[in-house]
Fold:
Amino acid sequence: MLFVKDAPNENLIVRAARVLDPVEGLDNQVDVKVDNGVIAELGSNLPQNSHKVIDGTGLVLAPAFVDPHVHLRTPGREDEETISTGTRAAAAGGYCAILAMPNTEPVVDSAAVLGALVEQARADAEVQVGFLAAISKGQEGSELTEMGELADEGAVGFTDDGRPVVATSLMWRALQYASITDRPIAVHCEDPTLSRGGHMREGVVSAELGIGGWPSIAESVMVERDLALALYENRTLHLMHLSARASVEALRRAHADGVRATAEVTPHHLVLTDEAVRTLDPNVKMNPPLGAEDDRKALVEALRDGTLSCVATDHAPHARHEKEVPFEEAPFGVTGLETAFSSLYTHLVEPGLISLETLLERMSAGPARAYGLDAPKIAVGAPANAVLLDTQASWQVAEDGFKSRSKNSWLIGEKLSGRVRATIAAGRLVHES
Amino acid sequence: MGDLHVMRDDLRPPGPPPTRHLISIGDLSREDVERLLGTARTFERSLDREMKKLPTLRGRLVINVFYESSTRTSSSFELAAKRLSADTMSIKASGSAVDKGESLKDTAITLGAYDPDVIVLRHPQIGAPQLVAKVTSARIINAGDGKHQHPTQALLDLYTIQEQFGRIEGLHVAIVGDVLHSRVARSNIQALVLLGARVTLVGPPPLLPRGIEEMGCEVTTDIDAIGAADIVYVLRMQKERMLEGANYVPSLREYTARWGVTPERLRPGQKVMHPGPMNRGVEIDPLVADAADALIETQVRAGLVVRMAVLYDLLTTGPKPVEAEVPMGVA
Structure:
């Protein structure tokens, strides 16, 4: 279900890092030895032999990150991102695995399109890539895709992301039918009749700027609908990029009722509010839009208490000329793979809003669990998927530092704390800085 | 958590406009507004002379770029520049490279190559003036950006009120109608609140944006509220900006019946303003539009002198009194 390019595994020793795996309950300063891509030993002063040594002194070694929501723009918009550039960006961000969305040109809605992507990932992917397939053919919201065959071909789940599943009946059938695959349905919750004409969250700022408002209820009424369907069918559901307090509260109530739903939140929704739109910078325009401070606080609290179990970047590359236009003309979406950890370390961990352990869990085991994938872990016998973090580092985000083919980051020029120093993905050292 | 709001220096709203741009009323201090109104008054006196042209901006280039249709704004900017002896050029979206798909950025760079002193821009989208400001060295005057701002309209409205009442502070202005789609409303709310007037918005609930009261005004759906105002400012129903099927109002007939400004809903002596163009018989009864208490034509005349004042203020030192610069004798 996850695909990566074929390359020789490595023999590595990470020396003297603080090894922190909140799921395994590990927090020790030890050496970690990787033999042929697999974690072979944890201990002090391990002999080097012919292994490549990475000095981890003063650094944190943790399970590498898993991003459940990335747009690789392939096929169709390789000018914005390719599997090669997107996975190199992921490696630079500390990710060992990413899940790609199917809203490409053509849409990933048939075994043929998916098969071609799998082949490309086997040739080009620096870190493991999983592909979601569409729920409906062409993501047009009327006919179900051949989910059985798509799952056999390796689809990790199904989504019409980029668009909501508008017809309630189709969403109902999708939940029923996908049960033959054991792969989750993931939903972009938006009632398009409420969000139509909206370019930012409806509220005080949109009223003052005169920008078309996208009300929070456009998200939350669809969250309520889909949770009701999931309860009725007793099926798992994954809610993508939640942005509103009402959505989080609906999810919390559904969890109490026994609904098996997971949900993700993006770094930009955890850090920014609609006040940022006053800059009119198209790089703070995304879907769903930035919420009010009250929404942001609810998202942070839900990430802390686990109601939101995943951080997802919703990495959405866009060509420069498409973003260098007035705000309302610009497409929705911002990049995030290379800044996710640092932005959340700076804005959530340093101020004490959540612990480093919680952040690490929500960026790695949480997303893996949502899609039924093996969680990366620092344990003997596990494949080496680890990230080396410098929590003392301070750096300034610059456009020319990105590995992504697109530069539409909301953080350009910002000073951040915490930096990814190395990434080991599927047994290979894929990033070092 | 103010530090969380990402503000990049090149995207901050520009500084005080007397030095560079006029994009939003929010860029102006009360002192700036009072100075601009004073300058406009000086120019108004100069227009009483037989020779109406002043040499003040001789050799300066003002380019009017209009991506949306306009009669009074584009004509008054052009005449204002000419009265001050500036060279002018006018570019309209239709018939230009915009028709061929040229982006705003590229059009701005092209025009910037002529070294204009001022670009007057009207564009259907917020943020367009900032984008042009970023890629040219011209001073930018926002002549309307989407539903956001139309600062020279608000200034000419303030000028009209000031001339009529001798003051602005303490007056009560009711703004009636389609606030949601109105850049005129947003600029006027800011400007009137800045100068100490009381502002009440009146209209159908879907056309009164959620949260607008945070701008410092009162909000009601009851048309009878206009009875308490010194000035009733009527907004145009912006049919062209309304999404089809959005059901902001059930029909124009019902809108007119509930919120139309009619003689019956006004007290004698209440002044009526409208930014134009009017939909007679929709938001405003023709009897009101043509009555002696309507200031609509005065607003148009004020547009010329206020735009002269804005051009003058941007291109000279701003805070310096206008008399020092304008030779009032021969021109």
Observations:
- DSSP finds nine helices and nine strands in chain B.
- The two ends of chain B are 56 Å apart (CA to CA).
